[in-house]
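Figure-free illustration: sequence to structure, shown twice.
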Amino acid sequence: MSTVDQDYQLPGGGANITALPKISLHDHLDGGLRPQTIIELADDIGFALPASEANALGTWFAEKSDSGSLVEYLKTFDLTTAVMQTEAGLTRVAREFVQDLAADGVIYGEIRWAPEQHLARGLTLDQTVEAVQAGLDAGVDDVQSAGKTIRVGQLVSAMRHADRGLEIAELAVRHRDAGVVGFDIAGAEAGFPAGKLREAFDYLAKNFFPATVHAGEADGLESIRGALFDGRALRLGHGVRIAEDLVLESEDGDNSYVSLGPVAQWVKDREIALELSPQSNLQTGAIAQWGNDLIDHPFDILYQLGFTVTVNTDNRLMSNTSLSKELFLLSEAFGYDLTDFEVFQLNAASAAFLSLEEREDLADQITEGFGRA
């Protein structure tokens, strides 16, 4: 059973959203475990949980994550990472992760995680990456055996509050031909700018290795500036607070006129993808300055202004969500239809850390799939 075992249709009985081909760019491995898997893996290592039944444990995660604080939100990961400290645990979680993506219609997924958080039981950094890749490969084989197709890649994350940035960057590059497609920094954002890991980003740039950076979630424009300047980010992890650089100039009837500050203009003009995660942004308080409901999310204004917006889940377990559910909720809030959904997926295809030819192939799959809807 996956985190969210439900098909979603466009409001009003429209097309089946779950069946549409989709691309997932921002999805954390340790945020997408099945509750039953956590229970079984915890039992194997004697780790105590707050609930012993899958539905109750899933509810616990959802309630604890809906705090309005990224710091509190991140505390729920103590449970998931605890059961991901062995090769068997990492491989099983990664395999099921791919199965669940495919069940939600995902045809390409980039799966991010921080190897340095999985060393408590003696694994080396390289062993953790290899264990996850074994699971991803097995998951892809499972999906293909079921008559579907999916591609996946690892995004190796360094924890921004730790002092292992260069080491993790070297790890990512070392496995670039064995499943790792990009680099990320994650964890507490405020107080830990990308510039603290400048040495790692310099190394990545010298090796022509792509990076996305968590920025504009728990911190504002300076964090985004750092991601772009120090991190050479090709995408922004969340990036929702780029909306702080928008200025409402005037309103004329049903029309609003907005000007863009220099950071927002740069991100828009360079088509730097925003990895927006609507429900997670509500849970962590990332959009609190604009409101507390999905209708208040800057997603729509960013989309209407021409930013390269993509839709993501962030953490399917914590947000009790799926990519299809996120699209469904956006449609309810903003009236989006298949045409909008296709734009979001084509944006994600163009931003994927793949070769040009592979990205073009993904775009063709999206167009063909939406054409059949």
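We now fold a second protein in the same way, so the two outputs can be compared directly.
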Amino acid sequence: MIFAAILAGGIGSRMGGTDTPKQFLTLGNKPVIIHTIEKFVINEKIDKIIVLTPKNFINHTNHLIEEYILYKDDIIVIEGGRTRNDTLMNGIDYINEHYGIDEDSIILTHDSVRPFVTHRIIEDNIDAAKKYGACDTVIPATDTIVESINGKTIESIPVRDYYYQGQTPQSFNIKKLFNLINSLTEEESNILTDACKIFALKDEDVYLVEGELTNIKITYPYDLKLANTILEDIHD
């Protein structure tokens, strides 16, 4: 089976001026998270969509899905975790308990606040995860990358040609991901906040899927303004 995990566990502390998590803010005429879920609902290859939210937003999320999404039978809303990895494990545990995990099971993990993920990106993630076992959506770095250890002076300026900016989805063979997460030491678990980093730490290859400049993550107030502009361009 192919699963999509929409990671909506954040509280949006960097958005400022609102107590509402950023994934529930309005973009155009509906919440950001609904725009995101819709991109996965229309993909016929995805069997189940698992939305992971803070516990106190589960009912609210279900109400939004009822209100906005026509084909909602394959969407399940469950509680996320304290960290991104905890949230991901909650999703994997749910899949294992209710559907089982076989050698071919695939999971696409996606930020709920990236509402402009394209059908092509999703398709490429499915194909790469099936073929390679792990993939990450990226775009080439366009700005000069500066490394500073102390946050005050430049340590190095790497060659930009070799660097990419990470997006999502990040997609995996579920059994492989599950086994790697369970092999982490407590120290490793505490410092790893990204599933692809787990593969890298364990010397497992993660293949690149080409992203899009418009596949932005809504983190700050400016991002929401930009997202509304992108949405207007799409509808024109």
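Summary for the second example: The mean pLDDT is 92.
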